[in-house]
Design a protein that fits this description.
Number of helices: 4
Structural class: mainly alpha
Order of helices and strands: HHHH
Largest sheet: none
Strand content: under 5%
Radius of gyration: 26 Å
Shape: flat
Oligomer: single chain
């Protein structure tokens, strides 16, 4: 069951596409959801991390990236306030 959940995340496939050899996808999804909600995955991760750290298998160096990603102005569906009014823009076009 755990292997099926890991396979799904490694491959990036929808739950319905998990191979039958791991069992019904509904069971995998329900178990994953339950383990996520009750903290089981957090406890497993903490135990694995502690074991790896005890034998020196964890490199605690941290790399921080300050990259900023911005959406294009047309990527939103909100109206854009240009600071002017529609009447002023129309009269400026007609004056020339």
């Amino acid at each position: 069951m755990v292997e099926g959940i890991i396979w799904r995340y490694r491959v990036g496939t929808p739950w319905r596409d998990v191979p039958r050899s791991f069992g019904p996808w509904q069971t995998l999804w329900k178990r994953h959801r339950r383990y996520s909600g009750d903290g089981t995955w957090d406890r497993i991760h903490a135990e694995l991390l502690a074991d790896a750290d005890a034998v020196g298998g964890v490199d605690w160096a941290v790399s921080v990236d300050s990259t900023i990603n911005r959406a294009h102005q047309h990527a939103t569906n909100l109206p854009r306030d240009t600071g002017g009014s529609v009447e002023l823009q129309e009269s400026a076009r007609g004056a020339g």
